[in-house]
């Protein structure tokens, strides 16, 4: 059974940085694209970024371009999201998801506040 587990969230001041990690297991990680999605308090799900199976293609939502970087390590079955220049409106639960959308992690809370 596919499993995804995020880590690395926390409280950070505006302008700060955080690095999220997602550990994948139970499926052939290197053959699937992967995605980060977030949900802010009281709002719906928002797509953040996706990366292809071999990291050749990555895409970002407009508000994250230039601030967030998605990477992956297929040897370690890990997905990452480096978040810089964080803003209060980046506060959300961040989820990693299998490229099919069928599997999601439990999420990690990111709070940007002074």
How are the SSEs placed, and which strands pair?
Blueprint: E1 3-7, E2 10-12, E3 18-25, E4 34-39, E5 45-51, E6 58-60, E7 68-73, E8 78-83, E9 92-98, E10 108-112
Parallel strand pairs: 2-10
Antiparallel strand pairs: 1-3, 3-8, 4-5, 4-9, 5-6, 7-8, 9-10
Any overview of this molecule?
This protein starts with a strand and ends with a strand. It is built from no helices and 10 strands. The relative contact order is 0.33. Strands 2-10-9-4-5-6 form a 6-stranded mixed beta sheet, with no helix packed on it. The chain has strands spanning 3-7, 10-12, 18-25, 34-39, 45-51, 58-60, 68-73, 78-83, 92-98, 108-112. Strand 4 and strand 5 form a beta hairpin. The chain is mostly beta strands and 114 residues long. The radius of gyration is 13 Å and the shape is globular.
Give a quick precis of the structure.
The protein has 114 residues and is an all-beta fold. The protein has strands at 3-7, 10-12, 18-25, 34-39, 45-51, 58-60, 68-73, 78-83, 92-98, 108-112.
């Amino acid at each position: 059974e596919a499993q995804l587990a995020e880590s690395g969230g926390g409280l950070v001041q505006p302008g700060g940085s955080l690095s999220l990690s997602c550990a994948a297991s139970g499926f052939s990680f290197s053959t699937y694209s992967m995605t980060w999605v977030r949900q802010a308090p009281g709002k719906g799900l928002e797509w953040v970024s996706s990366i292809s199976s071999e990291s050749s293609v990555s895409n970002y939502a407009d508000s994250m371009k230039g601030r967030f970087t998605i990477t992956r390590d297929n040897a370690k079955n890990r997905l990452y999201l480096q978040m810089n220049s964080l803003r209060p409106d980046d506060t959300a639960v961040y989820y990693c998801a299998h490229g099919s959308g069928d599997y999601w992690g439990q999420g990690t809370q990111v709070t940007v506040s002074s």
